[in-house]
Amino acid sequence: MNREFLARYATALSTLIIFVIFSIVINNFFNATNIFMLLRQMSMLTIIALGFILVMGSGGFDMSIGNSVGLISMIFALIFNHTGNIWFALVISMACGPIVGFINGVLTSYVGLPDFIATFSVGSMVYGLKMMLTKGNPIFFPNNMPAFFNFIGQGYVGPVPFPVIVMLIVLLLFIFITRKTVFGRRLYAIGGNIIASIYAGINVKKYKVLAYLVLGFCVSIAAILLTSRLGSAQPLAGEDYLLDVIAVCFLSTTMFGNGEPTALGVFVGAFLISMLNNGLTMLNVQYYFQYITKGLVVVVAISLSILLGQKGKEKI
């Protein structure tokens, strides 16, 4: 194996090696029940990360996604518990993610705020809003919750959890968007060279706002799936997604592409992060060591890819 191959597939190979090790040392890790559970656990993370790569590919960033998940969940629960109308609650809550995305897009593209500052500030306001609405308390659903809503997060189609099916549909859609559409190509062009994109006649501001809108929609989908799976609305639900999504998206840049985040890379990266969470939990590793291990694996995988890639270029 040459350095170029290792640089391109270091993270994928690391994922495979860790999977084999866990399968050997952990009883019941490599069985259908646990694998499907692992895939269900990674579904929401993957869906959000797929939206994130559009923003990242356009040169942007979003610090508000974790708090947005909690807000969407809370708004859905509040509306449903007060009106009893599941469809009204779904429509309004699903609209919340794109609204937050639109605000982020306008602030970064038209107002000119740096992405980190704008999205961090919006995320802080979202956090305050969800706490104000609920006083920080979880919201539970009545026992007569519609069966189809419970199915969204808890149901199966044959042996396959329904969230996994949703994840695979979104994954295929994003593979098509990033590889085959003008929209996807222009977003990556903007991230690669914004000045050249402007001279090429691309409406950079519009495309960046659209990227944030799509990410917001992905956040809404993940929030509804998570709310259904938990069977309640938790104010802090989704806060852990921020760091995991960032890790997944950076891992995706080391796979199947030339330093660009890819949809397939997101899937492998999300599988790696979720597998670490799953395997270390089955090994009864303390939660703080799980964070250390997860961070170490991400740093090593990305560093190897970068260092091997640099050495390959030096030879050329």
Helix and strand arrangement:
Blueprint: H1 3-25, H2 32-57, H3 65-83, H4 86-111, H5 115-134, E1 139-140, H6 147-154, E2 156-157, E3 160-161, H7 162-180, H8 182-192, H9 194-199, H10 204-230, E4 232-233, H11 241-252, H12 263-282, H13 287-315
Antiparallel strand pairs: 1-4, 2-3
Mean pLDDT level: 89
Principal-axis shape: globular
SS class: mainly alpha
Percent in helix: over 70%
**Which sequence of SSEs, written as H and E, runs from N to C?**
HHHHHEHEEHHHHEHHH
Secondary structure tally: strands? 4
Number of helices: 13
Q: Largest sheet, order of strands side by side? A: 1-4
Question: Strand content of the residues, in percent?
Answer: under 5%
> What about the largest sheet?
2 strands, antiparallel
Q: N-to-C terminal Cα separation, in Å?
A: 17 Å
Gyration radius, in Å: 20 Å
Uncertain runs with pLDDT below 50, 5 residues or more?
Answer: 311-316
Care to describe what's here?
This protein is mainly alpha-helical and 316 residues long. The chain has a domain at 63-166 and 191-239. 78% of the residues lie in helices and 3% in strands. It contains 13 helices and 4 strands. The chain has helices spanning 3-25, 32-57, 65-83, 86-111, 115-134, 147-154, 162-180, 182-192, 194-199, 204-230, 241-252, 263-282, 287-315; strands spanning 139-140, 156-157, 160-161, 232-233. Strands 1-4 form a two-stranded antiparallel sheet. Strand 2 and strand 3 (160-161) form a beta hairpin. Helix 4 (86-111) runs antiparallel to helix 5 and helix 4 packs antiparallel against helix 10 (204-230). The chain is globular. The model is unreliable at 311-316 (pLDDT under 50).
